[in-house]
């Protein structure tokens, strides 16, 4: 499975500056996923556009917590937050075709979300180019 991350090669001063720049940024929201008070992952709403009322959602679960349904719960909570608190109409997600567990999880989530016709959750299957 490929991970889409950059290595953190920033100094503490650079990280502080980055934090100060983004502390009041309204285009992103991040939520921690915990299991028995232990960090298990992160759900993020990014590129929040309040004019067009859409955003992208992304999630990562630590490998030792995978297979416990935390991704489903985290995605559900993030999507509900986007629709009910941020008043968005569309949330989309990119899914790597080489991650069958994620594809299955998202298919199950989409089938549950189809009952809500006012809002749209749209997964987009993406192929990572190495």
From TrEMBL:
<keyword id="KW-0808">Transferase</keyword>
<dbReference type="Pfam" id="PF00583">
    <property type="entry name" value="Acetyltransf_1"/>
</dbReference>
<dbReference type="InterPro" id="IPR016181">
    <property type="entry name" value="Acyl_CoA_acyltransferase"/>
</dbReference>
<protein>
    <submittedName>
        <fullName>Acetyltransferase</fullName>
    </submittedName>
</protein>
<dbReference type="GO" id="GO:0004145">
    <property type="term" value="F:diamine N-acetyltransferase activity"/>
</dbReference>
<dbReference type="InterPro" id="IPR000182">
    <property type="entry name" value="GNAT_dom"/>
</dbReference>
<feature type="domain" description="N-acetyltransferase">
    <location>
        <begin position="1"/>
        <end position="130"/>
    </location>
</feature>
């Amino acid at each position: 499975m490929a991970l889409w991350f950059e290595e953190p090669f920033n100094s503490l001063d650079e990280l502080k500056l980055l934090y100060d720049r983004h502390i009041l940024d309204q285009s992103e929201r991040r939520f921690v996923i915990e299991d028995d008070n232990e960090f298990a992952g992160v759900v993020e709403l990014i590129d929040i556009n309040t004019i067009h009322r859409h955003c992208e959602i992304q999630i990562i679960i630590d490998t030792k917590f995978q297979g416990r349904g935390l991704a489903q719960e985290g995605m559900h909570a993030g999507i509900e937050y986007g629709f009910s608190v941020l008043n968005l109409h569309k949330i989309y997600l990119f899914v790597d075709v080489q991650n069958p567990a994620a594809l299955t999880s998202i298919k199950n989530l989409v089938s549950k979300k189809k009952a809500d016709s006012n809002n749209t959750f749209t997964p987009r299957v993406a192929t990572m180019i190495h």
